[in-house]
Amino acid sequence: MNNLNQQGEQGGSNGGKKKKKGTPNRPFNPYWIYVVIAVILISQLLFSFSSGMKSVEWKEFVNEMLLEGDVSKVVVVRYENVAEIYIDQDALSKEKYSEVRKKTFGQINNLGPHYVLTISTVERFSEQLEEAQSELPVEDRLKEEYDNRKNWGGEALSWLIPLALMVGLWIFIMRRMSGPGGGGAQIFNIGKSKAVLFDKNTQVKITFKDVAGQDEAKEEIEEIVDFLKNPDRYTKLGAHIPKGVLLVGPPGTGKTLLAKAVAGEAQVPFFSLSGSDFVEMFVGVGASRVRDLFKQAKEKAPSIIFIDEIDAIGRARGRNAAQGSNDERENTLNQLLTEMDGFGTNSGVILMAATNRADILDRALLRPGRFDRQIHVDMPDLNERKEIFKVHLKPLKLDDKVDVEFLAKQTPGFSGADIANICNEAALIAARRNKKQVEKQDFIDAVDRVVAGLEKKSRIITPKEKKAIAYHEAGHAAVSWLLEHASPLVKVTIVPRGRSLGAAWYLPEERQLTTQSQMLDEMCAALGGRAAEDIVFGEVSTGALSDLEKITKQAYNMVSIYGLNDKIGNISFYDSSGQSDYSFQKPYSERTAELIDQEVKSIVDQAYDRTIKLLKENRDKLNQLAELLLDKEVIFKEDMESIFGKRPFVKDEEPLIHDEDEKEKASEDTEVKSPESDSTASTNGASQTSSNEVKESTEEEVKASKAPSTDEEEKG
């Protein structure tokens, strides 16, 4: 077989000698039909322009040709609604007719027609021609001639081209259906896998050196790559390589990047595709693509298959019973389970997958023998963010004053993708300012831009609204400064950003556990804006929408999930399996639901009363802070110290930022820490899977808390 292939390749390179010999055995190629059609179209175009005729307008024809006496005759073609104009041979010597005087196809002179005039109707053209010559002597007037010829070539093409296309399409479909396997599943290769193959001939530039901040996850992945390179090291001890590796973590933490690094490091074929590539409108296509994927992988074993966003096909079975039992996703999942650990042998094929929704995956998919390892790729901590910054800062032209450690401390709760976005945004800001290097201030502005949005200084705000915004933000800043467990303030502004009318930046403490007192202090800090409005103006506005949303979710989590309420007790209604999302019933009675609502309201009311009391005791300082905001629009930590004095909670105030840099910093929001740390606290001592699932359940809260405390616009 190889010899035949080599002969065929040689025949193609030796002037087609071998190709000529095998020609009688080849079937008719339908693509020749398209070649013939193209030749006909090109010929038609060439002949249409070969006459040398130029288009002319009516006014030009009358004023410059007809009235000048240069026209010898006018021929009206009835069926084409055009008039062909012949220029007198003596008049062709004029300079203005030089373009149509050129010889064509061996003619000594261009005998015409020389110009073509588009007409509306034959009758109307006759009237216009007679009217245009009304001032000329009768003997000098031209009379149009008529021609009844038709463009048979154009008419033939009008019906020949569609017919040829239909015939070509029919031959193409028939050839596809008569291919290997037959049947409609082979039409357009719909049952074939869409995986992209990366092998030793495909250069993937990403390696493990480009992956920073995920040392534990990288170590486990590197072990798999090492097994493929040096299998004897493990097999001699009786070990076998894990059949499947599942990467689990929030979006943007580097799951796909780790897979790309494996493709770049492993010297084996690497098949990459998305979970949605299996899903089609046709029944059985997903299962067919799974079979074809593993077939290709086994042929090239040892090999790696990577399925990104596997939750698209790996969702737990039985959750969509209302849609019918013949669920295409379930069929695809069943085939995937069979291929991963069925009766067939898949030696040398390793399956890698990534998802941020591990809680909804089918249990059969997660068991050992299919996915032997679950690698958790979490949000980076301080040191990991520092390493990630180093990777993304390499291609940038940096100023000497840019401190990587400073940037890492200003971005708590940021993922690797967020950090990459900040570095790119900082470079864009520096370029916009015509700088030759990216400076520290550019990174600070980039954090502000990503977290809070673009400044909108042109937004029209009335003096009354501006005063309300100032007191709202001053309330947030004052309460957070006076409470022990609230995050220290870094910057407050009343300049509109994005959808917010004002914003406050905090520097959250990076902790793994969150206590009840810490959560209550954070709720008070969030309610500081509304409390300030209530005290100063005697009424509240709609600007505290985001604050109310945050504290309501936090209060419900305290009562119903984390067991931080005395009346409800040490009970959690959190469902780690994710089945509660598809249930129409609550896991508690109506009486308990009423009690939960009462306790949530009690917690929020107590936090609000505490905030009111705290602000009333410091009313003069609140007024002073608000007036400073109205004057400067932006205030920093040193302004807070001048009004309130230094925070008495020294243990919370580590020297993260140098004093000379205080006015430059604009850091991440304090609210990042709360939900993620809460989840850790609530699941301490539980199984690894359960702990991770609780983190994922509060992931949306983490995202929501990234934005600074804002005074939002009123929602319609």
Offer a few descriptive terms.
716 residues, alpha/beta, name from scop, Rossmann fold, Helicase, Ruva Protein, domain 3, 4 domains, 6-stranded mixed sheet, 15 strands, disordered N terminus, disordered C terminus
How would you characterize the overall build of this protein?
The protein is α/β, with parallel strands linked by helices. The chain has 4 domains: 56-146, 3-Layer(aba) Sandwich (name from scop); 196-376, P-loop containing nucleotide triphosphate hydrolases (Rossmann fold, 3-Layer(aba) Sandwich); 382-452, Helicase, Ruva Protein, domain 3 (Orthogonal Bundle); 463-712, Peptidase M41 (Methane Monooxygenase Hydroxylase, Chain G, domain 1, Up-down Bundle). The protein has 25 helices and 15 strands. A 6-stranded mixed sheet has the order 6-8-9-10-7-11. Strands 1-4-3-2-5 form a 5-stranded mixed sheet, covered by helices on one side. The longest helix is centred in the last third of the chain and has 28 residues, at 590-617. The chain is extended. It starts with a helix and ends with a strand.
In short:
The chain has 716 residues and is α/β, with parallel strands linked by helices.
Number of strands: 15
CATH topology of the largest domain: Methane Monooxygenase Hydroxylase, Chain G, domain 1
Distance between the termini: 72 Å
Radius of gyration, taken over Cα atoms and rounded to an integer in Å: 38 Å
Number of domains: 4
The low-pLDDT segments are: 1-24, 179-186, 652-716
Q: What class would the helix/strand composition place it in?
A: alpha/beta
CATH architecture of the largest domain: Up-down Bundle
Q: Helical region count? A: 25
Sheet bearing the most strands, described? 6 strands, mixed
Overall geometry comes to extended
- Looking at CATH, the homologous superfamily of the largest domain is Peptidase M41
Proportion of residues in helical segments? 40-55%
CATH class label of the largest domain:
Mainly Alpha
Estimated share of beta-strand residues: 5-15%
Q: State the strand order across the main sheet.
A: 6-8-9-10-7-11
Round the mean pLDDT to the nearest integer and report it.
75
